[in-house]
Every structure is written in C-alpha cells, then in structure tokens.
Design brief:
Elements (H helix, E strand, L loop, with lengths): L20 H23 L9 H6 L6 H18 L11 H11 L2 H14 L4 E7 L5 E7 L14 E7 L6 H4 L3 H8 L5 H8 L1
Antiparallel strand pairs: 1-2, 1-3
Bound molecules: manganese (III) ion.
Manganese (III) ion (MN3) binds next to α1.
C-alpha cells in the first residue's frame, strides 16, 4: 500500500485572507506531496509498507530518519488540512469548550498558551493540543516533523490538533511574523473537526 496525498477539502483560496492561496498551493502540492513521495521511497520493500502512518509514528525509533521526517510530515499535514475550514474559527462550543475551560481555565488562556508554544518553538516544528494517557488536554510542541504520537516525543499523547510553524506555512504572506500567522490561524480553525477528534 502506497501512501497518497489527500485532496484538500476546500479550494486553495478558501482560507483567505488568513492563509493565502499561493501558500496553500505550494504547501499542499509541493511540501506535503514531497513528504508522501519520500515516505513511499523510504518504506519501499520494507514491512512498514503495510502499516498505517499512525502505526509507523508510534514506533518511529525503529525506523531510519527518512521515515521519521517524511512519515511525520505526512501525518502532520494530513491532520492540519482538515483542522482548518473556510467560514470557521470563532470559539468552540459544547464539550470542546468544556474540555478547554477545564484544562486551561478559559478559551483565551488556552489561546495564549498555545500561541506561546507556537511562538517559542525554535526553528521549524509544530504546536500541538493533545490528549495525554489519562485523557487530559495538554499543549506541547515538537521539532521538525516529529509529533506527539512518536515514541521519541518529549511529551507524548494523542494529537487533537497541530499547527504548522515551519516558515513554509506562512512566509509568503507573513514573512518573519510568526505571531501574526498564529493569530490569523484562529480564524480558520475547524472546531467541528476538532470535536470529532476529541471523541
Ligand atoms: Mn508544512
């Protein structure tokens, strides 16, 4: 089974003005596509060919670095696209709001802490909202294309949503202003999808 690039569930320009069409086109069509191609090359002829990308991530320490980088890249971007939607954003409601308020005090406090994790990740990486092994929500960040599913992650858990803070995710529109990109991203967060992931 070869890994495949999932289609974007909306048009390249659907997230404008928060995320521009050219960034989405390059990010999905070149960056994510590259991770998929390189992952397929890295697992070709090995047992990992038969596994899901989640299963690979959970035992990532057993694999070469090309599988870690590209398997992580494939998993991370797949969850990223569907965590965004046009006409989305705002504040969560129902059980998502309850879980966030209970873990972080308030939605604003959650946004502040998540933004701090995104802003303080040096170089390339991801900020994450995760559910830890006890079912509690937590915020963490990972370098490069690592993610909290990986057995090598400093803080492990089930990803609920990850925000890409690689420069390729925002540089065309925001240049070095990562905090502005993070602020804009809240306008496209797909809380319906996040509610599904929280189970
Ligand atoms: Mn990316």
């Amino acid at each position: 089974m070869a890994f495949t690039l999932p289609a974007l569930p909306y048009a390249f320009n659907a997230l404008e003005p928060h995320i521009d069409a050219r960034t989405m086109e390059i990010h999905h069509g070149k960056h994510h596509n590259g991770y998929v191609t390189n992952l397929n090359n890295a697992v070709a002829g090995t047992d990992a060919e038969k596994l899901s990308v989640e299963e690979i991530c959970k035992n990532i320490s057993k694999y070469p670095v090309a599988v870690r980088n590209n398997g992580g890249g494939h998993y991370n971007h797949t969850q990223f696209w569907t965590a965004m939607a046009p006409n989305a954003g705002g504040a969560p409601s129902g059980k998502v709001a309850d879980a966030i308020n209970s873990a972080f005090g308030s939605f604003d406090e959650f946004k502040t802490k998540f933004g701090a994790a995104a802003g303080s990740r040096f170089g390339s990486g991801w900020a994450w909202l995760i559910k830890d092994s006890s079912g509690k929500l937590a915020i963490t960040s990972t370098p490069n294309q690592d993610n909290p599913l990986m057995d090598v992650a400093e803080v492990k858990g089930t990803p609920i949503v990850g925000l890409d803070v690689w420069e390729h995710a925002y540089y065309l529109n925001y240049q070095n202003r990562r905090p502005d990109y993070v602020t804009a991203w809240w306008n496209v967060v797909n809380w319906n999808e996040i509610a599904k992931r929280m189970g």
